[in-house]
Specification:
single chain, 393 residues, alpha/beta, Rossmann fold, six-stranded parallel beta sheet, 19% strand
Length: 393
């Protein structure tokens, strides 16, 4: 296949870019040609772009004026002659229609929530309604402004909804979990065009693992942002009666507030903010912990970090938010709490910290499931097969 990936950034930013990089690299290893049309934002672009045969700036992906060497997507499609257009995060101008089959990977809630978070601003609870009039009550008409002037502006919800629904006209939409599929269908996406294909992201599984650590250590891996719910984890941990320590591997704009919260709760001496940890060092952290926590406030589109924890034979304590139940089976590979239920998350942590046999049993079952269902090569198999079928349809 000859694939043209389209993404509004070029470089390392987060999980979306990891998925784009890993899937393109793996497909190239299998003999496919992977090209990239990208927008202006860049972080170490040369390193990231090595996953592709060639990369090109695309005019539609530059909201504030394209550089001289940027070409319109229509021209790129004509010149590069791809068999398939593979969209990721893109503005509405990049949706076409184009004279080639077009598939989009839906990485988050951009197509179903004008605020993009899918939880309510005022109480943090997950929204289980279709986009519509309720969005006005939750402030979805507010937008952040960059540069000088006022930090917030106003934008009509109607145009946002029309832009989101333009995606229903694409040939296919890929989502990472059953929950994401249900969310798109609830918002009017045609059922025959929405397909569950978990994201192809490389993760490491050691050949041999140690049992969950005897020390009562909880590990969180991920960004320190509000949607990840680390504040809920701190509150849950503060109520634990047995000894514990919490390692937070990651960084983000919520870190100062989380450090202050730990001080206010009187637990700062038991919480270690590690900052960004390179992927190759995570294995040592998993070896140190008894349980991995995934306390997401927003409905995770999938939550690959939990699969990696399972691959290291670590049981997961998590909120059953979004796609998390697709890989974490309650009582089998981890313990799930209702979304946002801090007391239930505390109970799950308490059980795993206090019962070494339970932690070991769930950790082993989780490792077996991760290796059986979510190994990287199998995820790439599913993506490759789907894209080939779309090309031939």
């Amino acid at each position: 296949m000859r694939l043209l990936f389209v993404h509004d950034r070029i470089g390392w930013f987060g999980g979306v870019e990891q998925n784009v990089f890993d899937s393109a690299g793996a497909l190239r290893e299998r003999g496919h040609t992977c090209l990239l049309a990208h927008g202006p934002e860049a972080r170490n672009p040369a390193d990231w772009a090595r996953a592709f045969d060639r990369s090109f700036p695309a005019a539609e992906l530059y909201p504030e004026g394209a550089p001289d060497d940027a070409r319109p997507l229509a021209r790129l499609i004509e010149d590069l002659a791809p068999d398939l257009l593979y969209l990721h995060k893109v503005p509405v101008a990049a949706l076409g229609p184009w004279p080639v089959r077009t598939v989009r990977m839906v990485h988050d809630h951009d197509l179903t929530c004008p605020r993009r978070h899918k939880y309510f601003l005022w109480n943090g609870r997950i929204c289980d309604h279709p986009a519509g009039w309720r969005c006005w009550l939750d402030g979805a008409f507010l937008v952040r402004r960059r540069g000088g002037g006022l930090p917030l502006g106003f934008e009509g919800i109607g145009p946002k909804l029309r832009h989101m629904r333009r995606n229903w006209e694409l040939d296919a939409l890929l989502v990472g979990s059953r929950a994401m599929r249900a969310e798109l269908l609830m918002n009017g996406a045609p059922a025959e065009r929405v397909h569950v294909v978990p994201p192809a992201v490389r993760w490491t599984a050691p050949e041999a693992v140690t049992p969950p650590a005897r020390e009562p250590v909880i590990l969180y891996v991920g960004q320190l942002i509000r949607g990840k719910g680390v504040d809920l984890l701190l509150e849950a941990a503060a109520g634990l009666e047995r000894p514990w320590r919490l390692l937070l591997a990651g960084d983000g704009n919520a870190r100062p507030a989380l450090e202050a919260q730990a001080r206010d709760l009187g637990i700062a001496d038991r919480v270690e903010f590690l900052g960004f940890v390179p992927h190759e060092r995570l294995g040592g952290l998993y070896a140190r912990c008894r349980v991995a926590a995934v306390p997401s406030r927003w409905p995770e589109p999938f939550g690959m970090v939990g699969v990696e924890a399972m691959a290291h034979a670590r049981p997961v304590a998590a909120f059953a938010a979004g796609g998390i139940p697709d890989w974490c089976a309650h009582g089998e590979t981890g313990l799930l709490a209702p979304p946002g239920d801090i007391a239930a998350l505390r109970d799950a942590l308490d059980r795993l910290l206090g019962d070494e046999l339970l932690a070991h049993r769930l950790g082993q079952a989780g490792r077996e499931r991760a290796l059986r269902e979510f190994r990287f090569d199998r995820l790439v198999d599913r993506l490759e097969t789907f894209l080939q079928q779309r090309q031939a349809a």
